Amino acid sequence: MDIIKFACVQLNVGADIQANLEQTITLIRQAAAQGAVFIATPENTCHMRASDDLKLQTSLLEVDHTALHTFCALAKELSVTLYIGSMAVKLSDDKIANRSFVIDQNGIVSARYDKIHLFDVDLPTGESHRESRIVQGGESAIVADVECAESKFKLGMSICYDVRFPYLYRDLAHHGANVLGIPAAFTVPTGQAHWKTLLTARAIENGAFVIAAAQCGSHEGTRKTYGHSMIIDPWGHVLAEAGDAPCVIMADIDLSLVEKARTAIPALTHDKSYHF
Q: Catalytic residues, which ones?
């Protein structure tokens, strides 16, 4: 059997990139010490700020990003694949990218993904977000070829709000993804209402594993995130779930379950074109 030990690192990041990096490194080392070879972190791994202006001012160019260089060295040192859920990467004086990275066991960035669907919402609780004010949305879907130890799989990359757009995951699955990455910094009210349901749906409807590392707790200003990182199998079973504090969760992933689920219910082969 093709079994891989996955881990999600759940974080509570603040304003200081270096402090957040130290927290993340500690938990990544913990996961690797327990045998994980594919380790995922949440959206906004580098830092979260109380305002868009502060986020823009403190974001770094990719070439200068201390966290990215550190994660590359760490992946090589530990001989693990790191899936950095996202970091703020400065593009210009007024725009950043919300960008995910896959870093292979040799410490090389093997895939990047810029968040396509941006979080511009007004929640019933009064909480309001306009991610598009400073984030430049991506235009490319990415399926990354991942090698862990002696195993290989295809990772469909996404970030947080993307989870509400099922056509993206359908397309990722049709392009070979058997694992769907959904790193997030979900708000508390939307997390309580929708997080598990959305993640489970994406797993079931595509017959794929879902790995969803999340932010948790209180952050600079009034921002709060839901936590509850999850690893879900292609049949919709939750293999591991975190609570609302920083931690590591782990699960053994049997990739053969993808083919079994897709053979039992071959919905991916039953897609039809239609018109109104």
A: 43, 115, 160
Average pLDDT, the chain: 96
Specify the number of domains making up the chain.
Answer: 1
Task: Note down the domain range covering 152.
Answer: 3-268
The mean pLDDT value for 202-230 works out to: 97
- Taking 70 as the threshold, does the pLDDT of residue 1 lie above it? no
For residue 270, the model assigns a pLDDT of: 97
3-state secondary structure the chain: CCEEEEEEEEECCCCCHHHHHHHHHHHHHHHHHCCCCEEECCCCCCCCCCCHHHHHHHCECHHHCHHHHHHHHHHHHHCCEEEEEEEEEECCCCCEEEEEEEECCCCCEEEEEECCCCCEEECCCCCEEEHHHCECCCCCCCEEEEEECCEEEEEEECCHHHHHCHHHHHHHHHCCCCEEECCECCEHHHHHHHHHHHHHHHHHHHCCEEEECEEEEECCCCCEEECCCEEECCCCCEEEECCCCCEEEEEEEECHHHHHHHHHCCHHHCCCCCCC
Give the mean model confidence (pLDDT) for residues 110-119: 97
CATH number at residue 205: 3.60.110.10
